[in-house]
């Protein structure tokens, strides 16, 4: 193999490594999207559930619980994360929690009573809190030294 072909192969490997870092970071950044959607849900939900043609009748107190329970779940999730992250690792924690977040969204989307909506929102907050730390940690671990500190 000539010197120029070795450099070409090495350059291809660097581009592939950079591409994998970007793809992995974007995938892990979806955790922050989930957090934003969960927070923004409260405004849309409150507007729709208080309209005259809402199919589900909830009290003001129930609406308040549904909108705010995600924050309670986040706090519990952060505490749980500090124990499970060292035991299982960042990627495994994210892999375990991803289907549970999807389950929380299904409960919110298909929920037809107060308790199902409350449980779905609690799951969203809980597992989003669990995965926030590990996703940030893993992005820091995989980033090349020349990409850190932007």
TrEMBL record:
Main location: membrane
Membrane-crossing residue ranges in chain numbering: 62-84, 96-118
Any one annotated GO CC term: membrane
Membrane topology: Multi-pass membrane protein
Record's keyword terms, sorted: Membrane, Sugar transport, Transmembrane, Transmembrane helix, Transport
Location of the protein in the cell: Membrane
Pfam families xref list: Sugar_tr (PF00083)
Domain Major facilitator superfamily (MFS) profile positions: 24-150
Coiled coil (residue ranges): none
Protein name per Swiss-Prot or TrEMBL: Solute carrier family 2, facilitated glucose transporter member 6
Naturally occurring in which organism (per UniProt): Amphibalanus amphitrite (Striped barnacle)
């Amino acid at each position: 193999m000539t010197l120029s072909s070795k450099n070409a192969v090495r350059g291809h490997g660097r581009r592939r490594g950079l591409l994998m870092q970007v793809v992995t970071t974007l995938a892990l950044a979806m955790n922050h999207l989930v957090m934003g959607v969960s927070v923004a849900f409260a405004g849309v939900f409150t507007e729709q559930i208080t309209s005259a043609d809402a199919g589900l009748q909830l009290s003001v107190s129930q609406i308040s619980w549904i909108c705010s329970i995600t924050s309670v779940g986040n706090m519990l999730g952060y505490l749980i994360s500090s124990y499970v992250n060292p035991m299982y690792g960042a990627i495994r924690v994210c892999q375990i929690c991803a289907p549970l977040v999807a389950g929380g969204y299904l409960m919110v989307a298909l929920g037809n009573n107060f308790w199902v909506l409350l449980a779905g929102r609690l799951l969203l907050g809980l597992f989003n809190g669990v995965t926030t730390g590990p996703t940030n940690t893993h992005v820091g671990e995989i980033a090349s030294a020349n990409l850190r500190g932007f």
